[in-house]
Amino acid sequence: MWLNAQMLEAGLSVALDAGANLIGRREGTRSSRALVTGSHIDTVVGGGRFDGILGVLSALEAAQTLADHDVQLHHALEIVDFLSEEPSDYGASCIGSRSWAGTLSGAMLKATNGVGETLSAAIDRMGGDALQLGTPLRSSDQLVAYVELHIEQGRVLESVGADVGEVTGIVAIQRFELVFTGRADHAGTTPMLMRSDALVAASRFTANLSDAARLEAGIVATVGRLAVAPNNSNVVPGSVRLTFEARSLEVARLEVFCGSALELARDAARLESVRLESTQVSTAAPLIADARVRAAIRHAAQGVHCLALPSGAGHDAMQVGRLCPAGMIFVPCEGGRSHSQDEFSTPAQLVIGAQVLLNTILELDRVFA
Ligand code: GLV
Ligand code: MN
Ligand code: MN
């Protein structure tokens, strides 16, 4: 509601689309095709106040500044708050931007959260219309280019003293759910050699996955979510449901790595005499940032220290980049901390980022005219 009101105040016409994305739009003088900027306002549990939010608020600030100075663009400008960019309770991430690109699969839409609600029902509850999401909500001929401002979520910019980053590409991400099912037994009376301990299997897998990723330059892998049942101190764990993800800029190597990771899970299950089920929850292709958008960002960043770097974090730009030329601008964040309440960038760093975003919008409007 607050964001909706702010968009109206910036002179934008506001709509919620079938993907429950909130869109503020101003028309251009020559073309109805839109330059798009934005990000997301959802956060991970225990996350900070900058991841995603910076991109939405800076987009709003850019629109307000254009209105204040009565600047007309050739193209329409859309400011977008994409629905649920972070991994949702339904498994998939980048829900709103996937709905634009048409990459929300039937399986993703049918996936349920902990209380049995499907993702489709949740999108409808947020004001969208999941029935429309079988095909892309947006087409390439409606969009000119996409640029997203975000905190770096790493420490490269800070370590070299750069003011902004010009993103070269974003890693591919594969995410899986594994369920190890053993047998819940009395922790005092069940001999060690007679147990089917699901948590021991899951732990072996977690450690082996980490060891495997350490041997691979350019690949990271994480077990970030784990539910143990029955989760009692005096019961041998009967089942563990976990998610693991792996990321790399190199898709072919990532595929091979994920195949080996599933093999590690099967080995761990066999060793502990537990059953294993695995499901691929999502896959996101990497983004190679568009050369023209990158050039526009570098032009916009004249006078400040701008460094080219890749992104290990996922972003809505990966999905929108399937539809139109896309790129990203990063600002440094303290100690590279993110997905944590310690996430922080100084007001001065944020102002530089917002200024570069505005300059990039103006430059893209000129370049793509
Ligand atoms: C998004 O924040 C991600 O990189 O998972
Ligand atoms: Mn995030
Ligand atoms: Mn983000």
How would you characterize this protein structure?
Helices cover 33% and strands 25% of the residues. It has 11 helices and 13 strands. Strands 1, 2, 3, 4, 5, 6, 11, 12 and 13 form a 9-stranded mixed β-sheet that branches. A 4-stranded antiparallel β-sheet has the order 8-9-7-10, with helices on one face. The chain starts with a helix and ends with a helix. The mean pLDDT is 97. Glyoxylic acid binds at residues 86, 313-314.
Quote the average pLDDT. 97
Largest sheet: 9 strands, mixed
The level-1 CATH class of the largest domain: Alpha Beta
Give the termini separation: 34 Å
Strand-pairing-aware structural class: alpha/beta
The coarse overall form would be elongated
Query: Which topology of the largest domain does CATH recognise?
Result: Aminopeptidase
Radius of gyration: 22 Å
CATH architectural name of the largest domain: 3-Layer(aba) Sandwich
Give the structure's gist in a few sentences.
By secondary structure, the chain is α/β, with parallel strands linked by helices.
Topology:
Blueprint: H1 2-9, E1 13-16, E2 22-26, E3 34-39, H2 53-68, E4 76-81, H3 95-101, H4 106-110, H5 119-125, E5 143-151, H6 156-160, E6 164-170, E7 172-181, H7 198-214, E8 220-229, E9 239-248, H8 251-271, E10 275-284, E11 287-288, H9 291-300, E12 306-311, H10 317-320, E13 326-331, H11 347-367
Parallel strand pairs: 3-4, 3-5, 5-13, 6-12
Antiparallel strand pairs: 1-2, 2-4, 6-11, 6-13, 7-9, 7-10, 8-9
Bound molecules: glyoxylic acid and manganese (II) ion (2 copies).
